[in-house]
Specification:
Helix content is 58%, strand content 5%. By secondary structure, the protein is mainly α. Helix 11 packs across helix 14 and helix 12 crosses helix 14.
Amino acid sequence: MVDIDRKKKLPLNREFRTHVAMESTGVYWKPIYNLLELESELKVFVVNAQHIKQVPGRKTDVKDAEWIAELLKHGLLKPSYIPDRPQRELRELVRYRRSLIDERAREANRIQKVLEGANIKLGSVATNILGVSGRLILRDLIHGHTDAKALAQHSKRNLRKKIHLLERSLNGLIGSHQRKMLKTQLEHIEFLEKQIDEITQEIDSRMTPFEEDLERLDSIPGIGRVTAQHLIAEIGTNMDRFASADHLTSWAGLAPGQNESAGKKRSARTRDGNKYLRSALVEAATSATRRKNTYLYAKYQRLKLRRGAKKARIAIARTLLVIVYHLLTKQEMYLEKGAVHYNEKALEVKKQKAIKHLQRKRQKSAPINLDADFLY
């Protein structure tokens, strides 16, 4: 964490300190970094722990500090990307909102489990048991109403077309303890929704300076406003900190890995990266691949046949991040070229590969001219 004099095993004098380096271990580096960044004369490096591993069996905190100081002195450390304080605060808000949304989804699954235990198949008929109709039915069940026909009358809009199925699904045996559980779970969901709304208002107020960038990202298929806020909170809007789009995808953990030895290629699974950014992009990729007649849809269908659905989805997530990089760099809106453009482009690439393959095959089968080839 600090520069250390190897002979005396003591920290160097403050007046000689210009750089400080430390490992990015969990969240423990954050309070120290918050204090050190206030010192204008210090340049703080937060380093990936995988890049500075020592020989196993020789690890202590003191030796780690000495090793980091030695690497820093020789200029062998590459600092990780640490955003400024306003963006770090925005990150925390966006990530916390994501945690609340996930908790709401878990609580909804618990409600579904209680209903199944009471022989009530509401989820088999209603797409969303927490919609307007579903909540009215749940509140009646909580208050002890068990008449299936009366409960089915709460159905709205499209659900009324399935009212006979709804009546059959609401014929169950619900106990007092299950009503108590439903009441607690529904109140918890309403509390979470209130908290999500409050956090969203705070995020919207902090996102005001990035309104144009949000509109750019919102124009990409699969990326909505909430996902766009998540992306900007994680990577910012200044792409100068990343050397290229490939560097950004590698930092996010979406670039193929390299594992080759003795001419043999092994698993090229992606490495660990920013898990929050990665999950948001994979979710956006899932949404983008459901929109037909788009460039991303055509690419997904082509990759899915060769690599499988999961790997194809990761590839689309990487493509989305590359698009985000170029839109923020060039300050342009997304232009949809369609599935036909991708298919034509893929066909042209396939033709060029076939031509190169035939040329290499022809060169190998060509007769050897002894005078020309072995003259020297």
